[in-house]
Amino acid sequence: MQGNNGWTDVRMFYTKTGNAKYISHLDTVRCITRALKRAAIPVWFTQGFNPHAFLTFAMPLSLGYESLCETVDFRLVEEMDFQLAADSLNKALPNGFEVKRISKPVFAASDIRNAQYQITFENYTEELCQKARSVISLDEITVEKKVKQGKKKAVRSVNIRKHIKEYSVSEKNKALVIKTTLSAGTKNNINPSLLIEALVKGTGFEVTDADVKKIQTYTENSEIFR
Amino acid sequence: MIPKEAEKLLKKVQKPARYTGGELNSVIKDKDKVKIRYAFCFPDSYEIGMSHLGMKILYSLVNSREDAWCERVFAPWEDMESLMRENGVKLYALESGDSLSEFDIIGFTMQYELSYTNVLNMLDLGGVPVLKSERTSLTPLVIAGGPCVCNPEPITDFVDIFLPGEGEEVTNELIDLLKEHKEKGSSRIQFLREAAKIEGVYVPEFYNVTYNDDGTLKSVENFETAPARVKKRIVSDLNKAFYPENFVVPFIDVVQDRTVGEVFRGCIRGCRFCQAGFIYRPIREKTPETINRQCRAISDSTGYDEISLCSLSTSDYTEIGRLIPMLFEWALKEKINVALPSLRVDNFSDELMEELKKVRRSSLTFAPEAGTQRLRDAINKNVTEEEVMRTASKAFEGGWSAVKLYFMMGLPTETMEDISGIAKLAQKVVDLYYENPRRQKGKSVTVSVSCASFVPKPFTPFQWEPQDTAEMLEEKQKHLLSSVKSRKISISYHQSDTSLLEGVLARGDRRLGKVIYKAWQKGCKFDSWDEFFDFSKWREAFSECSLSPAFYANRRREYDELLPWDHMDYGIRKEFLIDEDIKARSSLTTPHCRVKCSACGANKLNGGKCDARK
């Protein structure tokens, strides 16, 4: 059954919301691995000394963020109806995870260029809103970004202006809501925390309680990653 | 659902998933539809508590009742605790998010003495008065079980009811009784009177304790409905006993995160230092069919990819030869690893070795416990050097190159010669590796020697023995370090103050309640964690109560001294323990229970049955 030609590559689209946002990426990997096992999905295992289910996540999600557009790729070694697989996975996953669909992948994970986020600050005021607007429309938004230089970790000042592709600032349910599309993917990934940091610095407000939700990921041609 | 105010703190703490609940297989019920709400508390971090098999059993057991809901509570880590206190968030249970004070039963499992201060801290954080005397209503009722309650005296100020022994049956009986009394509107004392009539229920306030001038116990007198001696409860037939079909699967990495198959209770070995070897008697085995079925069910419901077998000295399981192939038959197909911990050197067969080779190879652990044959005989660890060498040699041929050796220091009758014996034995293992022509080429051997400090415990033959002082232990540690000549050998040992405190609390009496209370007030918690342990605060607490740790730890007790745990009946006869202690002094061994029954007395707890002699 297993071998180079005997599998089907599939991509599972799922959401991670509510308290599941407190589950780190590594713990998410383990959680999904176990759910695959419980749901008896015939996934391909690595053939090494320590066989494990072969899973590829397009973009790891930071601890504390919700997401509506997570994906994980795996290989099916037996034919299985995608809807059926999705249904049994939903029964096997803990609350906060929901499989939306399983389908054959169209793009490669490396095709991801942008991601749309919704950032919510509690305690909306008109003043905060104005300040946020003025900060986000500046020509230069410089933040300290942690980078790796070889094996060393360093901090570099980066102007993230050109990586903010789109944004809107509005009020919703007495909260300040910023919808923004940021560079994402293997190159130039901009974590929304950088923008939040710039906003906090620029507005002078003490807003530590920002909720972040990843809404959608896009490829170079602005197609939805699928 | 956890409280909103608590959720706001989660972004500021490490490992927030410790505090969210919502794990797979966690049980959510409608609180208005249950009669008894039970908070199962583990007085340590989430990662430690979630690894504990007893909690998994009792959690499922209580939740299998329609009229009760059992939830889990752990000690929050320092960062979370200080945020909770700052923001007025009470310690809550992970399932409902309700604070401890809203529960009917608050049950602690006492696995080690150094978690006592966490019990106080958790009650306080949960909005429950720490002192029993300040809790006047029927509920919440604070109960405790686990191995430490074989001597519950030091924590009687904080706990209403102790359940010595195994909890599967008595928990249900207690819940039934409390339900009845809640409906009747009984008072706390009315309920306790009835509870004390249940076998295996210890209500400490129904015992008067007096002391002699020298600080030793004078008398322990029962009154009200309490029995003179409280007999520990056991489950008679483990094949019929409740065992969970699923485990709560944590999101974060915990210490034991796998399917656990319990194979038997009790131990045939009778190592004289080992409390577990005596307090879990008599031996009761499960059939391989039961274990296989239980492992299968849990693996299916959790998705775990590893099974470990759990018991004392697992390789003493009489049916291990039948069980292992049974498990391998399906586990290998499903890529599930079967791990066999706690193996004894003398039981390592060729077949077992072959099976072990099929799974992942980690380092090999042996526990000779003492450095010389004389001392091994004294502690009745019936393992010879030849056996250690034979097994290590076999292991080296099988491709292992890392060996862990566990020893103890401060054992009764120990001399410096025994200490250098540890280094010598480790050196012999190193030499053996290089002498072995069939070893894995190009690989170097590592021998890790881990040296614990011996702590005399109740219900062992050494319960009368003085514990080494911190100074003596430090001298022995120095001697050991200077005896090691090879770089292939690494040595690690325990902090000696920690062992001293453990020893004091293990054999302490009721007067220690004040010391524990004061130590907690001074900020002591997580005492089993080196980064938290602060012995200077404990010392202050002792001196403020005019009590001396040395009185409890370093004093030789006479055989006729009344011991604080003498009114607890664990089946083991005192005369048997005395005989064993006397034999230790002349390095005389006692054969294990399968060779010859030594009439310890524990079989009386099970109508004369003991699976050591089936």
Question: How would you characterize the overall build of this protein?
Answer:
The complex is a heterodimer of chains A (226) and B (614). Chain A has 226 residues and is α+β, with helices and mostly antiparallel strands. Chain A folds into 2 domains: 98 residues, 2-Layer Sandwich (Alpha-Beta Plaits), CATH 3.30.70; 109 residues, Alpha-Beta Plaits, CATH 3.30.70. Chain A contains 4 helices and 10 strands. In chain A, strands 1, 2, 3, 4, 5, 8, 9 and 10 form an 8-stranded mixed beta sheet that branches. Chain A has a two-stranded antiparallel ribbon with strand order 6-7. In chain A, a hairpin with a 2-residue loop joins strand 8 and strand 9. In chain A, helix 3 packs across helix 4. The relative contact order of chain A is 0.19. With 614 residues, chain B is α/β, with parallel strands linked by helices. In chain B, the strands form 6 sheets. Chain B has a 5-stranded parallel beta sheet with strand order 2-1-3-4-5. Chain B has a 4-stranded parallel beta sheet with strand order 14-15-16-17. Chain B starts with a helix and ends in a 29-residue tail after the last helix. Among the domains of chain B are: 228 residues, Cobalamin-binding domain (Rossmann fold, 3-Layer(aba) Sandwich), CATH 3.40.50; 134 residues, Transcription Regulator spoIIAA (2-Layer Sandwich), CATH 3.30.750.200. Chain B is 33% helix and 14% strand.
Largest interface: A-B, 29 and 26 residues
State the CATH class of the largest domain in chain A: Alpha Beta
Which structural class should the secondary elements of chain B be placed in? alpha/beta
Largest sheet entry of chain A = 8 strands, mixed
The main pleated sheet of chain B reads as: 5 strands, parallel
